[in-house]
Structures are given as structure tokens and as C-alpha cells.
């Protein structure tokens, strides 16, 4: 979001993202921007403006809320001065990011800590604990308009023991039995009930209880009831109810999650002795795998000032295993990796697993070269010992490293390691933390947010992504320029940042789990253009797209436009060939008649054996080959001899070779003389939205 004001604080400009955030059709130019700041935050904003005007060449960050209708909103803004040619301030520019969810989570954590502290310090009865919990619940779920709580009695039924906005004395005469049909005291997870659900339940009650619930309990007025059990060892011991009287959709998923969180705290306060051992272990264990978590590692981090390195490893292959084979197989693979890593680490080193990352604490390590040596050994052992047991695992993680240095506090090492990890886009990459990466992390955060906004329509009913489109670049015969087919290339024209290179965002699309949806949209658009122009089209496939369901999805697009598989070529990179599971999908596609092209040949790690196993139709030589030849190639150079050898390799394998990056006529003539027949590059045609010339460039 971008906003500009004059020196008096009056609006002069705001982009569409800001208008959408504020729910405005147009910006009220000339009005005070303070009207868009919550009253309690206006003094902070004014102080920030004063600092900017006093130091116009610096920028300052500030957080504040907006006076919006929805219960939660919070944004973080960078204030900078707009200066004239003489360097004097003439206005203020503010660039903002929505942090509402993070702010909401922080308020929940504060309220939770307060509830636990009061419950542990004071000798509260169960009814007092539940009453205190309701008070806290209205702070973390402010959309609630009334609430109540029931407690399981020794006799086996539930009674109301706390209320807010109701006559508790009247409600205490109501007894709820868990075994009653459609009982609101029967579910074991948080659930939102509608007026229809409540009316159905009340209709089954005897007249006395129904009158109490619909009278003092206002049950007939409730449009939405968020009910959450307090569960101990699989058995509900109490229930928290939050009610809203106006809308059935009042509560969102975060409300449900936060009330569930409060219910966990209540379980601890009421039944702490039973849960103490579970919670003690859970604090230091990853809940899904039972392995040590990052919290356990953080305590060890600050115990000594000896040299150390913290390493964060993310293995994207695990995400695929979880998605395709389920939590059970995923957890087993994680434990296998953990066992292997533990066996290779020294006794002083520590290992943890948290938030889908492996964490290695390497004691006594001072240099990046020492870390690299450890990682190389672990990589070699993982490939040697895990490949036979888990062939679907490609243990080639992205790695972020933070070395303990004077300028980094020990407790900040995890944040530093993650900042380094965020810079690594491709499997196998390693990044060592440097202070400037914090700024890079801010840019990455912006990209993640901007992509989520642009791609959201893909998951909200299958719409088109915002500001994304395809360009098409021709592949031509080198002899006469005849057009053979087109390659579809993804483009992102951001409304504020302009054209953003795919190299900056494609890896984030994969990392954030959007590639299957975005890739399917690309396939659909490319097939539609192939049908419109009567020309074959090639589409790049990412590794995460190569799932068993892909061939049927592609077939659906072709059937929709009446095309045969021969009209679509599918391009993959060498990295894909390292995964056995993906190979099986590619072989299925080849059997169905699709042409498979190996893209950017010469930049990956594939062997001739792997290439021979895949029924390829063509190899695309990375543009680095042609670049090494120079604009005027000479036949006697080592680069020219390499090209001749590659051409011979393609002929021996029975594959067409498409040469990328052809930019000069001299390069085209040289390649033609060396036996190459197909090429791509600016000389033969730049990427464009439409095809103007079918035959010759």
C-alpha cells in the first residue's frame, strides 16, 4: 500500500491496494490523513512525521490501526520524506503492509499469558477460572456479544457456572446431558452452530429447560454460537460458548483457533496435575514427530559463549511426500532423516525439528568452510543410506547458516539462520547470514504478500491470477526461419513495481504452495492459444506439478479445446530427473503422446543414464552455451568444439536439439553449419503476447 500527503497531512495520492484495504472507491483528496488513523495511535503517527521532517533523508517505521468496521486491523508503515531538487521536504510518502493477523496473534498471546498467570497465582475455583476465561475471550474474540461456560459435574452432566451478558442464576437451573441427540455438549472440537442448529437442539428439550434457554439464555436470538470444549485425555470436561446475535458468519477461523487455545489453557488450570507431564514434554517436542523442537535448542544456545553455528535446513521433497503419501509416511521419513543426522553429528552438537525445518547446532564451529564440510558429509551419507529405503525422497535441502558473531546476540541466531534460508531459492543452495540480509528479508516478505494477493483468485473459485499473463517466444528452423512451435513464458506486471522477473518470484510461488494452481492456469491459457493459432505450444513444468493427477488435468485442457497431445510440448529441467516419483509421471505423459523437452541442459546434475531413461523428444541447450561462443563464433575454439560434441550427443540419442539464446546472424550461421537445426532467441523472435508471423522471422 502506498499513500502520499502534503506537509499539512492532507491526502495527495493513494494506490488501489490502499483503497481496497480501506474499503474506498476513491481517495478523499485534500482531507486529513489522520482521519484514517485510530485515535489511540494518532500521537505516534504525528511524532513519526515530526522525526521525518527533522531528518528528511531517513525513513522511520511505525505500526498503527485504522478506524475500520472489522474487529481487527493493524498495519506497519515506512514513512519517508518527499523532497524537492534542493532536498527540502514537500510531502510525506508512506508504504504499508497489512500485519493484522500477526497483531491479532500477539494480542491472543498476551491475553493467554495473563489468564495463565492469574490462574497460577490465585487459588481460583473452577467456576472462577471459567468466568475469568470468558472475560479474556471477549478481548481475543471481540465480535462476540455474550458468552457462557458449562462444567462437567461429578454426576456426569454439565451445568452453567459462568456467564457474560446472561442471567447466570437462571441458567444454573439448566442441566445438559452429553448423550442427548444433537447435544451442544457432545462435540469434541471447536464448532460454530447456527440458529438452525440451536433451534433443532432446543426442540428436543423438555419445556422447562427450553424455556430457560430461550428466555434468560436468549437462544432463539443467537445467530452464531462458537462452542469449544475443554478436553482432557479425549474427554470434554467443560465448554466455552461465545454468541453473536446479528450474523451467522460472525466468527472466522482465527476466532475458532483462539478460543480453542484458551480452552487448552483452561484444561491446564483445571486439570493441571493430569496434563503437567504431557505439557512439560510438549514444550520441548515437535507435536507431529515427537522430536526436539527449536525451543529446546534455544535454551542450549545461550548456555555458553563458545564458537558455534546454527544451520536451518528445508527439504522441499518432504512437502511432496506429505501431500501425496500422508502424515504417517511423512513423519516416518522425517524420523529417518533425524536418526541419520544424529548418527553423523558429534556428541556436543544438537539437532531439532520445528516448523518443517531441521535445525543443527554445531558447537566449536567458527568458519563457513567448517560448516560446508559438515553439510557435505551429511549430504553424502543421506544419499547413501536413505535412497534405498525412501526412493521418493530427494534430500537436497536449502540451507541457511548463522555463525555466532559479536554483532549477533545468541538468541537471535534462529532469526538470522531463517533470514539466510529465505535467500536460497533452489534445492541444494546454501546462504551464510550477513547483516544486509535483513533488508533482503523485508523485500522477500513483500514478494510473499504481493504474490498471495495476486494469486488468491486461483484458490477462490478458480479465477485468473491478478496481473499475470503469458508471452510466447518462437522456436524456428535455423535454415529457413520456419516456425516450429511456441514457448509459453509467464509474466507478472505488478501495478506498482512494474514487470517483475520470473527469477524473483517463481521459487516463492513453489515455496508458498501456489505452483499447482498457477501451473494449471498456465496450461489452460497455453492450450487455448495453441487452439486459437493452430500452433504447437511448449509449457514449462515445475517439479511440484509432477504429481500423479497431472496427466489427467492436462488431458482435460486438451479435450476442452479439441487438441491432440502432439500439440503440446512439456519442458522440465534437469533437477526434476533426480526424483524417481517425478520420473514416473513424466513417463506416463510420454506414453500419452506428449513431447518432453529437457530445458536448460547443461545447468543441472542429470547423467546420461537418467536422460536415456526418460523418453525425451528434444534437449534445449542453455543460452550459456551460445553466450560462450560470442557474437561471432569461430570453429576452432574450445567452445565451438564443445558445441559440436553436444550436437553429436543429441544425434546419438536420437534427440532434437534446440539452441537457446541466439542473438546474432553469425551465431545462426555457425550453428547451422555445425548441424543444429532448431533455435530460439532474440534474433529469431522476442517474447510477445501474440503471434504475428507464422513462417519466417
TrEMBL record:
CDD domains: EAL, PAS. InterPro entries: Cyclic-di-GMP_PDE-like (IPR050706), EAL_dom (IPR001633), EAL_sf (IPR035919), GAF (IPR003018), GAF-like_dom_sf (IPR029016), GGDEF_dom (IPR000160), Nucleotide_cyclase (IPR029787), PAS (IPR000014). Residues 306-435 form the GGDEF domain. Pfam families: EAL, GAF_2, GGDEF, PAS_4. Residues 444-697 form the EAL domain. Residues 1-56 form the PAS domain. GO terms for molecular function: cyclic-guanylate-specific phosphodiesterase activity. Signal peptide: none annotated. Transmembrane segments: none annotated. This is EAL domain-containing protein. It comes from Meiothermus hypogaeus NBRC 106114.
Amino acid at each position: 500500500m502506498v499513500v502520499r500527503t502534503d506537509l499539512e497531512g492532507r491526502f495527495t495520492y493513494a494506490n488501489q491496494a490502499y483503497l481496497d484495504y480501506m474499503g474506498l472507491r476513491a481517495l478523499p483528496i485534500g482531507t486529513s490523513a489522520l482521519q484514517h488513523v485510530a485515535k489511540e495511535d494518532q500521537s505516534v503517527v504525528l511524532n513519526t512525521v515530526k522525526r521525518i521532517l527533522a531528518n528528511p533523508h531517513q525513513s522511520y517505521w511505525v505500526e498503527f490501526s485504522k478506524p475500520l468496521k472489522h474487529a481487527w486491523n493493524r498495519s506497519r508503515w515506512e514513512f519517508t520524506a518527499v523532497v524537492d531538487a534542493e532536498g527540502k521536504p514537500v510531502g510525506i510518502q508512506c508504504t504499508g503492509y497489512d500485519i493484522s493477523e500477526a497483531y491479532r496473534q500477539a494480542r491472543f498471546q498476551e491475553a493467554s499469558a495473563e489468564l495463565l498467570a492469574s490462574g497460577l497465582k490465585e487459588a481460583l475455583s473452577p467456576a472462577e477460572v471459567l468466568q475469568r476465561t470468558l472475560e479474556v475471550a471477549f478481548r481475543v474474540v471481540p465480535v462476540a456479544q455474550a458468552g457462557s461456560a458449562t462444567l462437567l459435574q461429578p454426576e456426569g452432566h454439565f451445568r452453567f457456572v459462568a456467564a457474560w451478558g446472561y442471567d447466570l442464576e437462571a441458567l444454573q437451573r439448566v442441566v445438559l446431558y452429553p448423550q442427548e441427540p444433537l447435544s451442544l455438549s457432545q462435540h469434541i472440537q471447536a464448532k460454530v452452530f447456527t440458529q438452525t442448529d440451536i433451534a433443532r437442539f432446543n426442540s428436543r428439550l423438555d419445556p422447562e429447560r427450553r424455556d430457560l434457554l430461550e428466555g434468560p439464555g436468549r437462544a432463539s436470538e443467537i445467530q452464531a454460537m462458537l462452542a469449544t470444549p475443554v478436553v482432557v485425555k479425549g474427554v470434554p470436561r467443560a465448554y466455552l460458548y461465545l454468541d453473536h446475535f446479528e450474523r451467522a458468519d460472525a466468527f472466522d477461523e482465527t476466532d475458532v483457533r483462539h478460543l480453542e487455545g484458551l480452552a487448552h489453557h483452561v484444561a491446564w488450570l483445571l486439570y493441571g496435575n493430569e496434563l503437567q507431564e504431557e505439557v512439560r514434554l510438549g514444550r520441548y517436542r515437535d507435536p507431529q514427530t515427537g522430536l526436539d523442537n527449536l525451543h529446546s535448542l534455544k535454551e542450549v544456545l545461550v548456555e555458553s559463549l563458545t564458537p558455534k553455528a546454527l544451520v536451518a535446513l528445508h527439504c522441499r521433497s518432504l512437502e511432496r511426500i506429505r501431500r501425496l503419501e500422508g502424515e504417517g509416511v511423512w513423519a516416518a521419513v522425517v524420523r529417518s532423516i533425524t536418526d541419520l543426522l544424529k548418527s553423523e553429528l558429534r556428541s556436543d552438537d544438537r539437532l531439532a525439528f520445528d516448523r518443517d525445518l531441521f535445525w543443527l547446532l554445531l558447537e566449536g564451529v567458527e568458519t563457513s568452510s567448517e560448516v560446508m564440510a559438515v553439510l557435505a558429509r551429511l549430504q553424502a551419507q543421506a544419499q547413501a543410506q536413505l535412497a534405498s529405503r525412501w526412493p521418493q525422497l530427494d534430500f537436497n535441502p536449502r540451507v541457511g547458516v548463522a555463525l555466532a558473531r559479536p554483532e549477533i546476540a545468541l538468541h537471535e541466531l534462529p532469526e538470522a539462520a531463517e533470514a539466510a534460508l529465505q535467500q536460497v531459492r533452489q534445492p541444494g543452495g546454501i546462504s551464510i547470514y550477513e547483516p544486509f540480509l535483513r533488508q533482503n528479508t523485508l523485500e522477500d516478505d513483500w514478494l510473499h504478500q504481493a504474490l498471495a494477493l495476486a494469486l488468491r483468485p486461483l484458490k477462490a473459485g478458480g479465477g485468473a491470477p491478478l496481473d499475470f499473463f503469458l508471452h510466447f517466444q518462437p522456436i524456428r528452423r535455423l535454415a529457413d526461419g520456419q516456425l516450429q512451435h511456441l514457448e509459453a513464458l509467464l509474466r507478472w506486471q505488478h501495478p506498482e513495481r512494474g514487470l517483475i522477473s520470473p527469477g524473483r518470484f517463481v521459487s516463492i510461488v513453489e515455496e508458498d504452495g501456489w505452483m499447482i494452481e498457477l501451473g494449471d492456469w498456465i496450461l489452460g491459457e497455453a492450450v487455448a492459444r495453441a487452439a486459437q493459432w493452430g500452433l504447437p505450444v511448449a509449457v514449462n513444468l515445475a517439479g511440484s506439478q509432477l504429481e500423479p493427477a497431472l496427466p489427467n488435468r492436462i488431458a482435460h485442457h486438451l479435450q476442452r479445446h479439441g487438441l491432440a497431445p502432439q500439440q503440446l510440448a512439456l519442458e522440465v529441467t534437469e533437477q526434476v530427473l533426480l526424483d524417481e516419483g517425478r520420473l514416473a509421471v513424466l513417463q506416463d505423459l510420454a506414453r500419452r503422446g506428449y513431447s518432453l523437452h529437457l530445458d536448460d541442459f547443461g545447468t543441472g546434475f542429470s547423467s546420461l543414464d537418467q536422460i536415456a531413461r526418460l523418453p525425451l523428444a528434444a534437449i534445449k541447450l542453455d543460452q550459456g552455451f551460445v553466450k560462450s561462443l560470442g557474437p561471432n563464433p569461430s570453429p576452432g575454439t574450445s567452445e565451438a568444439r564443445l558445441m559440436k560434441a553436444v550436437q553429436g550427443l543429441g544425434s546419438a540419442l536420437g534427440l532434437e536439439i534446440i539452441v537457446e539464446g541466439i542473438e546474432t546472424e553469425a551465431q545462426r550461421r555457425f550453428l547451422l553449419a555445425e548441424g543444429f537445426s532448431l533455435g530460439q532467441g532474440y534474433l529469431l523472435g522476442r517474447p510477445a503476447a501474440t503471434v504475428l508471423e507464422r513462417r519466417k522471422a
